[in-house]
Amino acid sequence: MIDKEVIVIGAGLAGSEAAWQVANSGVPVKLVEMRPYKSTPAHHTSEFGELVCSNSFGALSSDRAAGLLQKELRSFNSLIVQTADKFAVPAGGALAVDRSKFSNALTKTLSEHPLIEIKRFEQLDLPSRENITILATGPLTADELFNKIQDFTGIDACHFFDAASPIIYGDSIDHEIVFKASRYDKGDPAYLNCPMNKNEYLDLRNELIEGEQANLKDFEKESANFFEACLPIEEIARRGVDTMRYGPLKSIGLWDPKWGDLFDRENRLKKRPHAIVQLRKEDLEGKLLNMVGFQTNLKWSEQKRIFRMIPGLEKAEFVRFGVMHRNTFLESPKLLKPTLQFMKRENLFAAGQITGTEGYAAATAGGLLAGINASLLALGKKPVSFPAESMIGSLMNFISNRNQILSNQKKNKFQPMPASFGLVPELTYKINDKKLRYKAYQERSTVALNSFKKLLNACFQKDRLLIKIN
């Protein structure tokens, strides 16, 4: 163990991962979390790594961008992904978790680590320049601290509005109407499905459009900057009559066996519902269900009234209503290196959604890199960058000054980005088949990361990957 300490501010996904990576390098960590003394508009508990939106980390398969990112994180002993795997719930081809067990386990693991000191208070300013610090306060960073960050950077913050879906009790739905199925019967039936005919769908759409909105601080409907990957369901409804049924309410490939043979085309076209609302398990037993794609800013009373119009949910009881909140992030390409160090202060790192990455696995990736590099700095070593051929490296390059993609964005304005194969460098040879091309990206990433691991282990003079959670 060494005398230097790393301060991690924020115990969300990025902060939790960063603290774990630092401590497993033999460096003491002070992990600062303001909850429960001060909460946010989206959090409901004081547990670490609370998932405030969906309970899904995205596709599992490594021929998908999110799946490749998860695979890379597993190979680097990610606490977040190991814990997510441990508390996974059925979700078709996605990694979804029991969010309560997930965050409870994270809190317990970090609290019991001998090199991690937990401090529960609101950080009101940046620690002194002598401290190695990781900012992982997320998109809901408290105003006072964010004002100090703005003073430090000299650059105004960016923001968008994000929303979460309601959660309902599983025993309050009508199983005579709602049926279990996965799309095209692939894998176990991981979703519960509420079928709607055309009139039911149109009535729901009209009510969503006309429903009374909750008032939000700093929120003006006519000028709201929504995050496109997490639009409120009422905003999707406004975009066109069929927008919902070609989006989150798509019915194609979902089938109740009592309707006959799914693969009988004539029967399928005749009996297929006009739209389907899907429910995903929040826990293994299915006691709690998430309304997939139903992020919303409707008033709670309106949510109860309107969502009970959905067939099978007429008597639904709500554990948690949907909410909307303002997310703030840094204009990272002007501020950060690919190592996640601030250009103005090399012992200050940023990680997670505050940097402009989007999604749980992407936030975790930032925490992993910041934790590794803060450890190296504490040990008197030079910070590293992940290979550009990896999904982690591509994401970090996107948010750093090395990013070249910004020139193609509208008005050259930086916007949050999830894992995407569009970020990775092109192959040196052409593959027209998309699946084969994505497989080639995966294989190239594996080769690049194997070499990178050798470099990293040489820096630490030990195999850090042997340290696992219990």
From TrEMBL:
Any Pfam family hit: GIDA
Protein name, per record: Methylenetetrahydrofolate--tRNA-(uracil-5-)-methyltransferase TrmFO
Keyword NADP: yes
Cofactor names: FAD
Residues the entry annotates as binding FAD: G10, A11, G12, L13, A14, G15
Similarity field: Belongs to the MnmG family. TrmFO subfamily.
One of the record's GO molecular function terms: flavin adenine dinucleotide binding
Domain of life (superkingdom): Bacteria
Gene: trmFO
Segments forming domain MnmG N-terminal: 5-381
Enzyme class: transferase
InterPro entries: FAD/NAD-bd_sf (IPR036188), MnmG-rel (IPR002218), MnmG_N (IPR040131), TrmFO (IPR004417)
UniProt keywords, alphabetically: Cytoplasm, FAD, Flavoprotein, Methyltransferase, NAD, NADP, Transferase, tRNA processing
E.C. number(s) listed in UniProt: 2.1.1.74
Gene3D superfamilies: FAD/NAD(P)-binding domain
Protein species of origin: Prochlorococcus marinus str. MIT 9201
Record field: catalytic activity: uridine(54) in tRNA + (6R)-5,10-methylene-5,6,7,8-tetrahydrofolate + NADH + H(+) = 5-methyluridine(54) in tRNA + (6S)-5,6,7,8-tetrahydrofolate + NAD(+); uridine(54) in tRNA + (6R)-5,10-methylene-5,6,7,8-tetrahydrofolate + NADPH + H(+) = 5-methyluridine(54) in tRNA + (6S)-5,6,7,8-tetrahydrofolate + NADP(+)
Major location category of this protein: cytoplasm
GO biological process, one term: tRNA wobble uridine modification
Location(s), subcellular: Cytoplasm
CC terms in the record's Gene Ontology section: cytosol
Keyword Flavoprotein: yes
Annotated function: Catalyzes the folate-dependent formation of 5-methyl-uridine at position 54 (M-5-U54) in all tRNAs.
